Amino acid sequence: MTGARVGSALTDEQVAVRDLVREFAAEEVRPTAAEADETEAFPEDVWDGLAELGLTGLTVPEEYGGFGADETTYAVANEALAHGSLAVATALSVHCLATSCIAEFGTEPQREAWLPEMAETGRPVGMFCLSEPQAGSNPAQMATTATYDPETDEYVLNGEKQWITNGERGGVAVVFAKAAREGGDGRSAEADDAITQFLVPADTDGFEVGKKEEKLGLRASDTTGITFDDCRIPAENRLTEEGKGLSAAFRTLTEGRIGIAAQAVGVAQAALDEAKSYATEREQFDRPIGDIQTIRHKLAEMSTDVSAARLLVREACRQAEAGEDYRVAASKAKYRASEAAMSVTNEAVQIHGGYGYTTEFDVERLYRDAKITEIYEGTTEIQKTIIARGVLGE
Ligand SMILES: Cc1cc2nc3c(=O)[nH]c(=O)nc-3n(C[C@H](O)[C@H](O)[C@H](O)COP(=O)(O)OP(=O)(O)OC[C@H]3O[C@@H](n4cnc5c(N)ncnc54)[C@H](O)[C@@H]3O)c2cc1C
C-alpha cells in the first residue's frame, strides 16, 4: 500500500480507512452494542455492513477480492471498530485469522474456492480452532487427531476444541489436529510435531457445535466448544503439510496479536472518551468534577496509557512491514495495550462513580469487555515469556 505519510505515522490511505471505520463504528456499531451485549445476540446487520465496506476481506489479497491491508491499516481498522464494539471487532479478527490461514497456507484451488466469498460477503464466517479444554497456553498439548484413510483419501477428525469464537455463526473452520499417515515418516499421531492445519466446513457430518459460553464480557460474540466425531474431510482440505501446523499457528497468532492489541487501544480510547465527557458534565461541590485535580490527573494518566499503547502497536506494525522479526514487538504491544484497556476502563468506571457501575453507562460494558484482551491470543504471562526470551536473546 502506498501514499504520503501524514504527520509521523499514517499514509493518506490509512487515514481514510481509519476514518471510514470510525464513522461506521460510531453510526452503526456503537448504537447496537448495549443491546447486543444484553441479549447476547451478534448484530448480523453490522456484519453485513462490514462486508459492504470490504472489511471482511481486510487481510485477503486483492487478487482474491480482498483489501490486502498492510499491518498498520489492519491495526487502525481494528482500533476504530473496537471503539464501537469489542465483540464485533473480535468476530472480525477471528474471521481474518481464518482468511489469513487460507491465503498464506492454502493451495490455489483452496484460495479460489473460499477467499472471494469470505472477503466480499463475509460468508461463510471463519473460525480458528486451536484451543482445547486441556490445551490453552500450550497448544502442543492438543489431543484432536486427524487419521488418514487411504481408501477414501480422507482425514477422519476426532477430538474437542474449546473457546471457539464465531462457533455458532461460523461456516468454515481452520482446525489444528495431530495427523500422521500409517507407513509415512514414522511420526506418531500423538507427537507434537504431527500438528497439521485443515479446512473444515461447519456442515460436515461429525462437526458438532457445543453450548454457547456464558461470559463476563464480550457477550455478543458467540464462543462455543466444537466436537469432531468421526468428521471426514477430503485430503485436499489439508492446509499445511503434515506436521507444519503449529509453526503456522504461531505465525498467524503473531499477526493476530497486533490486531488484538489495537482493539485493546480502541476499548481504552472509548473509555477515555466517555470519562472525559462525564467529567465535564457531572457537577459536585458546585463545579464539574473535571475541575478537580484528582480527576484531571486520572484523565492525564489514562490518556498517556492510551498513547503509549498505540505507539507500541504502531512499532510492531512498522517492524512487520519492514520484514523484521516482530514477535517481541507484537507481544509488547499486546501486553501493554491490554493492561491499558484494563486500567483505563477501571478508572473510567471510577470517574462515573455509582453510575459507572450500572448498565446505563457504556463504561460498565467496556470494563467487562476489556478483561478478555489479557487472555485470548496468548495471555499476558505468555506475552511476557516471549518478551523475556527477546531480552535474553534466546
Ligand atoms: C472469549 C474467548 C474467545 C476465544 N476465542 C478463541 C478462538 O477463537 N480460537 C481458539 O483457538 N482459542 C480461543 N480462545 C482461547 C484462548 O486463546 C485461551 O483461553 C488462552 O490461550 C488461555 O488458555 P487457557 O484458557 O487454557 O488458560 P491456561 O493455559 O490454562 O492458563 C491458565 C493460567 O496459567 C498461566 N500460564 C499457563 N502457562 C504458563 C506459562 N508457561 N508461564 C506462565 N503462566 C502460564 C496463564 O497465563 C493463565 O494465567 C478464546 C478464549 C476466550 C475466553
Automatic annotation (TrEMBL):
Alphabetized InterPro entries for the sequence: Acyl-CoA_DH_CS, Acyl-CoA_Oxase/DH_mid-dom, Acyl-CoA_Oxase/DH_mid-dom_sf, AcylCo_DH-like_C, AcylCo_DH/oxidase_C, AcylCoA_DH/ox_N, AcylCoA_DH/ox_N_sf, AcylCoA_DH/oxidase_NM_dom_sf
Superkingdom of origin organism: Archaea
Cofactor or coenzyme needed: FAD
Pfam families cross-referenced by the UniProt entry: Acyl-CoA_dh_1, Acyl-CoA_dh_M, Acyl-CoA_dh_N
Domain named Acyl-CoA dehydrogenase/oxidase C-terminal: residues: 243-392
Sequence ranges assigned to domain Acyl-CoA oxidase/dehydrogenase middle in this UniProt record: 128-231
Keyword Oxidoreductase: yes
Cited Gene3D superfamilies: Acyl-CoA dehydrogenase/oxidase, N-terminal domain (1.10.540.10), Butyryl-CoA Dehydrogenase, subunit A, domain 2 (2.40.110.10), Butyryl-CoA Dehydrogenase, subunit A, domain 3 (1.20.140.10)
Family, per entry: Belongs to the acyl-CoA dehydrogenase family.
Domain Acyl-CoA dehydrogenase/oxidase N-terminal: start-end pairs: 11-120
Keywords, in A-Z order: FAD, Flavoprotein, Oxidoreductase
Name of the protein in its database record: Acyl-CoA dehydrogenase
GO molecular function: acyl-CoA dehydrogenase activity; flavin adenine dinucleotide binding
Tagged with keyword Flavoprotein: yes
